[in-house]
Known about the structure:
This protein is mostly helical.
Amino acid sequence: MKTIYWSTTIILSIFLLWSAYTYLFSKAAIEGVKALGFPDHFRMQLAILKLLAVVIIVTPIVPLQIKEWAYAGIGLFFITAIIAHTAHKDPFIITVINLVLMGIMCISYIYLHKLNSYK
Length: 119
């Protein structure tokens, strides 16, 4: 059970860290966010929130309720990305990737609760 939780949480965290990094330092990602119609401050805000979400979900001493809010925020990242990329008529594979990552997030969340119910 711990293996499934940590595997999915690490995959999710790596994606969020990579995404935050590109939002801050990749010219292509910065231009891509602008092309989707979002203001520059939103890109910065998303990068910071993704970094905070990673810290929250991987730190064992963070209370469960705070972790739940982090997962809710991560879910909103994915929903926003799906809507924005669909509206922008980007390739469908981007939506598929976001849906797969959302599934990984859901598995991580479910196993977080399974682990906490055994304590």
